[in-house]
Design goal:
It is globular, with a radius of gyration of 19 Å. The chain is mostly helical. Helices cover about 50% and strands about 0% of the residues. It is built from nine helices and no strands.
Length: about 200
């Protein structure tokens, strides 16, 4: 699964690039605040992680649901030479987005989390967050396969695809995703711009 994740990560980087057009390339699966949905269009870094908040509590999720989302998103974008989804606090953005979503979207997401736990309990006797990382990976592999047409897995495949989209959006609009992964300059500007001309009298 690690190879699939790395490949997916590279394809996302190719897709969104480093310019302002990245905002339109990111999949938005739930309505949220405009500032959260299009940070690159204004050159602002306003993603999921805005600084330490030790007292933060989820608005929409209960504690178990939140920890499940943390574990799932970290498997989608794990820490490598740069931080992963957990450190970027992608779960917080997903929680915020869902808190402002329509009832059917809220219900679909919670049902998806419940489906994941039900599959884990059936197979391993434990919820997803209590599984070993190898067991988590084994369980998610068929759900991450776009060619999986199993009726038994349909709901899980659909949920995991939505979660993956939300994770990618949350990560690559977070401060960590923009500045450390994409090395996006944001509000940086140049005090001088000599241009292409080599003649000193034509340069500013």
């Amino acid at each position: 699964m690690a190879d699939k994740i790395d490949s997916s990560r590279r394809s996302v980087l190719k897709k969104i690039g480093l310019g302002a057009s990245a905002a339109t390339a990111l999949p938005v699966i739930m309505p949220g605040r405009t500032a959260q949905a299009a940070p690159l269009a204004t050159g602002k870094v306003v993603g999921a992680a805005v600084g330490p908040e030790p007292e933060w509590k989820p608005i929409f999720f209960d504690e178990h649901q939140n920890q499940t989302v943390v574990a799932l998103t970290e498997l989608i974008i794990p820490a490598t030479d740069t931080p992963g989804a957990k450190e970027a606090q992608v779960n917080r953005l997903i929680d915020l987005m869902l808190s402002e979503s329509e009832k059917d979207q809220k219900a679909a997401f919670i049902q998806g989390l419940a489906w994941i736990d039900a599959r884990c309990l059936k197979r391993y006797g434990k919820p997803f967050v209590d599984l070993a990382s190898e067991q988590q990976t084994v369980l998610l592999e068929p759900l991450a396969d776009p060619n999986n047409t199993s009726a038994e897995d349909r709901q899980g495949v659909r949920f995991f695809e939505h979660l993956k989209d939300a994770t990618i959006f949350g990560y690559y609009t977070s401060k960590i995703g923009l500045e450390q992964e994409l090395q996006y300059g944001g509000d940086e500007y140049h005090t001088e711009y000599p241009g292409a001309c080599i003649h000193p009298e034509h340069q500013t």
